[in-house]
Design brief:
Layout (H helix, E strand, L loop, with lengths): L2 H6 L1 H22 E3 L5 H8 L14 H22 L7 H26 L7 E3 L1 H21 L5 H25 L8 H22 L12 H23 L4 H29 L7 H6 L3 H5 L9 H30 L8 H22 L2 H4 L3 H4 L8 H11 L9 H30 L22 H15 L11
Parallel strand pairs: 1-2
Helix pairs in contact: 2-5, 4-5, 4-6, 4-9, 5-6, 5-7, 6-7, 6-8, 7-8, 7-18, 8-14, 8-18, 9-10, 10-13, 13-14, 14-18
Keywords: Membrane, Transmembrane, Transmembrane helix
Subcellular location: Membrane
Protein name: Rh-like protein isoform X1
C-alpha cells in the first residue's frame, strides 16, 4: 500500500475517533450512574429522606482504594507508555498513542464491566473499585500493542483494543464466575491473554507480507534511557497492581510476595543477560523487560501462602525464562512462525504469565485449612463447604458463603483449565481480529512509514530543518548563517 492511500484515509480516521467518543458518551449516559457511595438518591433510600449518614465498608473507603488506584494509573500511562519508547524514532507515538488508547479504552472497560453488573434499575454503578478494575483491564490491550508497536495506525489499535476488552471481559467472567478460579494479579487474565492476543494479530500481519529488517527498528542511546523510565515506574508500582483487588491479610501477602519475586527476577535478569551476551555485558532490552517478569509470574498466587522461598524461586525462574526468550525463542518464532514481536511481549508477559498460572495451580493444590485457617475459603470461595452444619460457624463469624466443596486437587485442575481456556480465547479471537484489522477501514501503514513518528505526528525538528533550508536558499551567497558570524 502506498503512502498516498494512508494519508487519504487520515481524515477518515479522525472522524472515526470523534464517532467512537460520541458513542461512548451515549452508552455511558444510558448505562452508568454513581454507586451508592456517591449517589445522593441511593443514599436517601438507604438512610431515609433526610439522612446523610452512610457507613462505608472498608473496601469502598476511598482513602483505602484511591492510593492503589493511583499506583495502577501511573503504571498504565507512564509505565507502559515510556517502556515502549525504546525505538529510536517512535517515542512520540509510544507515549502519545498509549495516552490516547488508554483514555478511550478505560471508558470501554468501564462499560464492559457495567454490562456484566447491571442492577434492577437497568443501571450499573460506578465506584473507585470499578475504575480500578477498568485500569487493570486496559493493561491487556496495551500489552497487545507492544507486539504490534510501529506497524499499525492509531485506529487499528483502537479497534483492536475495543474488541480485545470485550473478549477479555468474557474470558474473565468464564474464569472467575463460571470456573471460580483465582488470579489476584491477573497473570492469566491480563498478561497471558494480552500477550497471545497481540501475537495472534502479529501472526496474521506476518502472513500478509514477507518480513524484512527495517532501518528504524532499533533503539538509540537516548531512547533506551527513556524506556528505562517506564521500567522503573512499573517495577516500583507492581506490588500495587498485584494486590489492588485484595483486602486485609491477602493484600499484605500479595505486596510482600510481589516485591520478593520482582526483586529476584531483576537480579537473575541482570546475571543471565551478562551470561548470554557478548563480552559478559548487560543487554538493555533484557534489563528493560525481563527485570519485571517476576511481577507477572507471581500474579496468580500473589495472595497465597507461597512463603518467601517459593516466591523468590518463581521470580528467579521468570527472570531466567524471559532473558532466554529474548535471546533464543524470539528469533525462532519470527523465523518459523513469521510472528514479529516488537516489544517482546511473549517474553515479558506471555511465558511468565503461563508460569504464573501453573504456579498458582500448584499453590492451590497445596492449600489446606491447616495453613490458611478459614481464610482458605475467602481466597478459594469454591472450596467452601456447602453443607449447613459445616458452614454455620464460618458464615456467622467470618461472613463466608456456601461454596462448591471442592478439594485442593479439584481447585488446581480448574486453575489449569482457566489457563488453557484463556490461551484458546486469546489466540482464536486475536486471529479473527487480525483478519478484520487488515481491512482498510482503519487505514494501514506502509513499509516506509513503520516505526516512524512521522506517520502520526507533526515533527517540530523537521519543520525547523525545512524552514532553515528554505531561508538559506533565499539568502544571497555572500551572507553567512548566524552560527558562523
Amino acid at each position: 500500500m502506498g503512502k498516498g492511500m494512508f494519508f487519504s484515509s487520515g481524515k477518515q480516521q479522525v472522524y472515526q475517533l470523534f464517532f467512537i467518543q460520541i458513542v461512548l458518551i451515549i452508552v455511558m449516559g444510558a448505562l452508568m450512574t454513581y454507586g451508592p457511595e456517591a449517589n445522593v438518591n441511593l443514599l436517601k433510600n438507604r438512610t431515609g429522606e433526610h439522612g446523610r449518614k452512610h457507613i462505608k465498608k472498608p473496601d469502598t473507603n476511598p482513602l483505602l482504594v484511591y492510593p492503589m488506584y493511583q499506583d495502577v494509573h501511573v503504571m498504565i500511562w507512564i509505565g507502559f507508555g515510556f517502556l515502549m519508547t525504546f525505538l529510536r524514532r517512535y517515542g512520540q507515538s509510544a507515549v502519545g498513542l498509549t495516552f490516547l488508547l488508554g483514555a478511550i479504552l478505560v471508558q470501554v472497560a468501564i462499560i464492559c464491566e457495567g454490562v456484566m453488573n447491571i442492577q434492577k434499575d437497568n443501571k450499573s454503578y460506578l465506584s473507585l473499585r470499578s475504575l480500578l478494575s477498568a485500569d487493570v483491564a486496559v493493561a491487556t490491550p496495551l500489552i497487545s500493542m507492544g507486539a504490534l508497536l510501529g506497524k499499525t495506525t492509531y485506529m487499528q489499535l483502537v479497534f483492536m483494543g475495543i474488541v480485545e476488552l470485550i473478549m477479555f471481559t468474557v474470558n474473565k467472567y468464564v474464569g472467575e464466575h463460571l470456573l471460580m478460579t483465582v488470579d489476584a494479579g491477573d497473570s492469566m487474565f491480563v498478561h497471558t491473554f494480552g500477550a497471545y492476543f497481540g501475537l495472534a494479530i502479529s501472526f496474521v500481519f506476518g502472513m500478509k507480507e514477507k518480513r524484512k529488517e527495517h532501518h528504524l527498528e532499533g533503539p538509540s542511546y537516548n531512547s533506551d534511557i527513556f524506556a528505562m523510565i517506564g521500567t522503573i515506574f512499573l517495577w516500583l508500582f507492581w506490588p500495587s497492581f498485584n494486590s489492588a483487588a485484595l483486602e486485609g491479610d491477602d493484600q499484605q501477602r500479595a505486596i510482600i510476595n510481589t516485591l520478593l519475586s520482582i526483586s529476584a527476577s531483576c537480579v537473575i535478569a541482570f546475571a543471565t543477560s551478562a551470561l548470554v551476551s557478548k563480552d559478559s555485558k548487560f543487554n538493555m532490552v533484557h534489563i528493560q523487560n525481563s527485570t519485571l517478569a517476576g511481577g507477572v509470574a507471581i500474579g496468580t498466587a500473589a495472595g497465597m501462602m507461597c512463603q518467601p522461598v517459593g516466591t523468590l524461586i518463581v521470580g528467579a525462574l521468570a527472570g531466567l525464562l524471559s532473558v532466554l526468550g529474548y535471546k533464543y525463542i524470539t528469533p525462532l518464532i519470527q523465523k518459523h512462525l513469521k510472528i514479529h514481536d516488537t516489544c517482546g511481549v511473549h517474553n515479558l508477559h506471555g511465558m511468565p504469565g503461563i508460569l504464573g498460572g501453573i504456579f498458582g495451580a500448584l499453590m492451590a493444590a497445596l492449600a489446606t485449612e491447616a495453613s490458611y485457617d478459614y481464610s482458605l475459603y475467602e481466597i478459594f470461595p469454591a472450596r467452601a463447604p456447602n453443607s449447613e452444619t459445616k458452614l454455620a460457624e464460618m458464615r456467622d463469624n467470618y461472613g463466608i458463603s456456601a461454596g462448591l466443596n471442592r478439594t485442593a486437587g479439584q481447585q488446581a485442575a480448574y486453575q489449569l483449565l482457566a489457563l488453557v481456556i484463556t490461551l484458546g480465547i486469546a489466540i482464536v479471537s486475536g486471529l479473527i481480529t487480525g483478519l478484520i484489522m487488515r481491512v482498510l477501514i482503519c487505514g494501514s501503514i506502509s513499509e516506509e512509514q513503520k516505526f516512524d513518528d512521522e506517520a502520526h505526528w507533526e515533527l517540530e525538528e523537521e519543520s525547523l530543518q525545512g524552514s532553515k533550508i528554505k531561508e538559506s536558499n533565499s539568502c544571497s551567497n555572500d551572507q553567512l548563517p548566524m552560527g558562523h558570524m
